[in-house]
Amino acid sequence: MDSPTDNIESTETLTDFLNVFRASRNGVVYGGRLRFAHALALALVFKRKQPIGDTIYKALKLSCEHAWILAAFAIVYKGVLFAVKHVILKHNKASRKKYIHFIAGAIAGLLVYGQPTGGKLFSRNITHQVTLYCSSRMILAIGKMIAVKLSQSRTSDPNTTPKVHQQSKRMIENVSWYIYSMLSWGCCMYLYQSDPIFLHPSLRNSLEFMYNNERWKGLKGFFTQ
């Protein structure tokens, strides 16, 4: 006869297994919603002469591709977590949470976003965009973490008040952000003028629209062209 503990563990296993597919479903919903609005907005701004039917079709196509990528990543990531938790480390509960999220994320990132086999299962353009988006957010997160550590080391005196600690943290964050934004946009505008072919097409189109759109005639053209 099964003990209450066995019943609890079997219920947890089933829930975690179903959550693998739940995460995939969430990836489809989120990716579809996000990409459709983004693709539609870009088309209306940069391809205003394109027929509305083609615009909607391409937006839907990109939405499906984005949703498929997020769903695939979710399945691999959650699947690895499930395997580690319930198969590999089933009897070693103390080690379940050690590094497994990093390992699962790395494996899913390699298979879905890296595509080491060189296949065309996932859109290269979208996988590159999402990876670059993720890496930029990681840089900011790591920067904030370093700022907290540095502020703690600068204000290690037990007599330091929370206000002083917060001021030190804010100063480090501000200075690092000033340097980061200065170098990022300095390099961006330099590349745009010297070697724009190396910039991502969406960024290049945005810069082209804002800074090289100087062909206009008359007062009306100044505002509408």
UniProtKB/TrEMBL annotation:
Keywords: Membrane, Transmembrane, Transmembrane helix. One of its GO terms (cellular component) is peroxisomal membrane. The keyword Endoplasmic reticulum does not apply. The keyword rRNA processing does not apply. InterPro entries: Pmp4 (IPR019531). It comes from the Eukaryota. The chain crosses the membrane at residues 67-87, 171-192. Pfam families: Tim17 (PF02466). This is Peroxisomal membrane protein 4.
